[in-house]
Amino acid sequence: MLIKSTDKGLNWDNPVCLNSSIKDSKWGFIGACPGSGIKLSSGAKTGRLIFPIYYGLRTFPLNLTFSCVYSDDGGNSWSLGKPPLIKGRFPKKNPLFVPQRSWLSETQLCELENGNILAFIRNHHPKKRVMCSLSTDGGETFGKVFFLNNIPQPICQISAISFLHNGIKMVAILNAASEKKREKGTLRISLDGGKTFPYFKIIAENEFAYSSMAYLGDGTIGILYEDTLKHECIKFVKFAPEDILSSRHFEPSLPSTN
Question: Could you tell me the CATH superfamily of domain 26-148?
Fold first, then answer.
C-alpha cells in the first residue's frame, strides 16, 4: 500500500494498492522492509525513490529474498528490481528452492558518494554476520552478497543511513550486535563508504530489537528503537556523529568469505 500526505502528516490520502505492478502472482508474502527508503541525490538515477521489500517465493516454505521497488515519477508508478546473487538457490534464475542459509529479508539502503547503493541485509546464514550487496544501477539489480566480518547479528533488522556531515560523507548502521540473541544495540559510523566501521557506541546493553534512524536538521543522528523483546515501547535518542567518532575501536574479524 502507498499512502501520501501533502501537509507534513496532518492528513493522508486514501491508500493505493501497488500489488498489480510489483507483486508476482507466485509470491505468498510481500512486506516492506522496516526502517525507511531513500531518494537518490546523485548519479544517472538522481531523484529516484527506492524502497527495499522482501517476499516469499512460494507460499510454503517462504523461501525469503529481497529486492527493491523504485519510482522515477515521484511515486505515481513503481517498478520491481531483482534480488542479489547468493549461493544455494536452485535453479539460479526464478528459484523454486532456497535453503534457509540463503534467505534474505529485512534490508536497508544507503546511497554512496558515486550514486551506488549499498544494501545491509538481514540474513539466516549460520555465519551470524551482517550481509551486504552493492547496486550500481539505482537498485534495479544487486551483485554478489558479502559479509561485514566484524559486525555480528542474531537474525534481526539492521538500520542504515548515509548522510553528509560537515562536508564528510558518512554511513551509519545500528543493529543488535550479538550472535546469541537480540541484544547489545550498537551504533557504528564508516568514513570509507561502508567498507569499515571502526567507530562505534553501544546505546543499549541488554535487549534490543528493531530501529530506525534519520539525520536531523540539527546535525545529529535521531534514533527510534525497541529496548525490549516484548515490543512494549519505542524510545528516541540523538547522538552527534562527533560522539561516535571521538573513539576509534579495532575488533577482531573473521576470515572473509562469501
Answer: Glycosyl hydrolase domain; family 43 (2.115.10.20)
User: Using the 8-state DSSP alphabet, how is residue 182 labeled?
Assistant: S
Q: CATH classification of 153-250, choosing from 1.20.140, 2.40.128, 1.20.1260, 3.40.50?
A: 2.40.128
Point out which residues pair with 140 in neighbouring strands.
Answer: none
Q: Which residues, 6 or more positions from 65, have their beta carbon under 8 angstroms from its beta carbon?
A: 54, 55, 57, 83, 98, 103, 104, 105
Query: Residues for the chain: how many in total?
Result: 258
- Mean pLDDT, consecutive 10-residue stretches, the chain (258 aa), reads 94 94 88 95 96 84 89 95 90 80 96 95 97 98 96 97 97 97 97 96 96 98 97 96 83 48
**Do β-strands 117-123 and 104-111 pair in parallel, antiparallel, or remain unpaired?**
antiparallel
Q: How far apart are CA 59 and CA 153, in angstroms?
A: 27
Domain boundaries, the chain: 26-148, 153-250
pTM of the entire predicted model: 0.93
User: Partners of 121 in the beta sheet?
Assistant: 107, 131
Rg over alpha carbons for the chain, rounded to the nearest Å, is: 18
Looking at 153-227, which runs of residues are DSSP E strands? 159-165, 168-176, 183-190, 199-207, 211-215, 221-225
